[in-house]
Design goal:
This protein is mostly helical and 371 residues long. Helices cover 70% and strands 0% of the residues. The chain has 17 helices and no strands. Helix 1 runs parallel beside helix 15 (295-315), helix 2 (47-57) packs across helix 12 and helix 12 (227-250) runs antiparallel to helix 13 (264-277).
């Protein structure tokens, strides 16, 4: 399946399910920024600057999820079925891609590939994968499962008229995320695994619902929200995130490397609203094209690229130089690799097995047969 036929998630949106005029170039630009911020999480800037900037990066995944919610296909079960089948295909393909990669690294670490496989087949890892979206093959692939589950749950409830309940539940889940992650030591005097909050329930649904809620009331928000106010909100939320991260790091009982922060959602929301209000911003620029066509590839492939480049830098004695500019190098190389893969063949693009997945879901009765 070609890239143009992938589902409209934040990592792979196109106008297949909406009028062409509904496409917002500014969202593509925002996806490009979010993809870069994700890279900054896994290949962070060094030193004090990197430590201060790291909390800012935590707005990236909420941005992706909110854009996915905005582009949710309303009142069309056939397109919802295709969307779910294609996203399931992408999720399966990305995990399969990382299996040999994971086994190679296990062998290089001396863990042994066979022993590692046995560990992955445990009931605990199966529970983490199927319920908590934690992929045993790639630490970053949890997002694909989270957005898949969020879309499936939202579609199921929307079809029965219960989607409003999710809108009410979303703020509670957001607060639950904070209580179980960044602020767990204050509420429970202990840390919890990030698996409890980095999933469809505590992160996927709240952010997805925000995007869908904005879409439902887009005219109201676009009329009432002023660009100057949104820019001010972005600046204040960014400063708040830096201060929040620094304060939590200074507290002995606080979790130093939280997956989510209090000010991350306001920052993501302000950026999202600014992009929605200025729909044509960045149109036809290289960054808009990267966000439109390559964000999915960048997200999936960047850990591989980072690991290879890091090893090359170590072997050549250029580790210090590499780490000083790692986010920029990884982003550029991954984008170039993604463009190359997209160009040479449509058969190796993520989502090619979507027709097969759709037939499987139809036979299982998970979705109705569609034309």
């Amino acid at each position: 399946m070609s890239l143009a036929n992938k589902p409209e998630t934040a990592l792979s949106m196109n106008s297949a399910n909406h009028a062409l005029t509904d496409r917002r170039a500014a969202f593509d630009l925002l996806k490009c920024l979010a993809a870069f911020l994700v890279i900054c999480i896994h290949a962070p800037w060094p030193g004090t600057v990197g430590a201060c900037f790291l909390p800012i990066t935590r707005c990236a995944v909420p941005i992706f999820l909110m854009i996915s919610g905005y582009y949710f296909v309303w009142n069309d079960s056939e397109r919802q079925a295709r969307q779910l089948a294609r996203l399931l295909a992408i999720t399966v393909e990305a995990n399969v891609l990382y299996i040999p990669w994971m086994l190679l690294f296990a062998e290089l670490r001396g863990d042994g590939a066979f022993e590692h496989i046995l560990h992955l087949l445990s009931l605990e890892r199966a529970f983490e994968f199927l319920i908590l979206n934690e992929s045993p093959f790639g630490y970053h692939l949890w997002y694909l499962g989270a957005v898949l589950y969020a879309i499936a749950l939202f579609a199921l409830l929307a079809r029965r008229g219960y989607d409003k309940h999710l809108f009410i539940l979303a703020p509670i889940l957001f607060l639950g995320n904070l209580a179980l992650d960044a602020y767990a030591p204050f509420f429970f005097e202990r840390d919890f695994s990030s698996l409890l909050t980095r999933n469809f329930l505590f992160l996927g649904i709240p952010c997805f619902c925000l995007g869908a809620f904005f879409r439902r009331h887009a005219a109201f928000f676009e009329q009432k929200l002023k660009t100057s106010h949104l820019i001010a909100a972005i600046c204040l939320s960014g400063v708040g995130l830096i201060l929040e991260g620094a304060w939590l790091s200074s507290m002995e009982r606080a979790k130093h490397h939280a997956e989510f922060y209090l000010f991350a959602l306001p920052l993501a929301g302000a950026l999202f609203c600014l992009a929605a209000k200025n729909a044509n911003a960045g149109q036809n620029t290289v960054f808009q094209k990267i966000g439109q066509n390559l964000a999915l590839y960048i997200y999936i492939l960047h850990p591989m690229v980072n690991a290879i480049l890091k090893q090359m830098a170590t072997l050549t004695g250029a580790s210090a130089v590499y780490h000083s500019v790692a986010p920029l190098i990884v982003f550029a190389v991954t984008a170039a690799l993604a463009a190359f893969l997209k160009r040479i063949s449509t058969k190796i693009q993520f989502g090619f097995s979507a027709p097969f997945m759709e037939k499987c879901l139809q036979r299982l009765g998970a979705i109705k047969t569609v034309a």
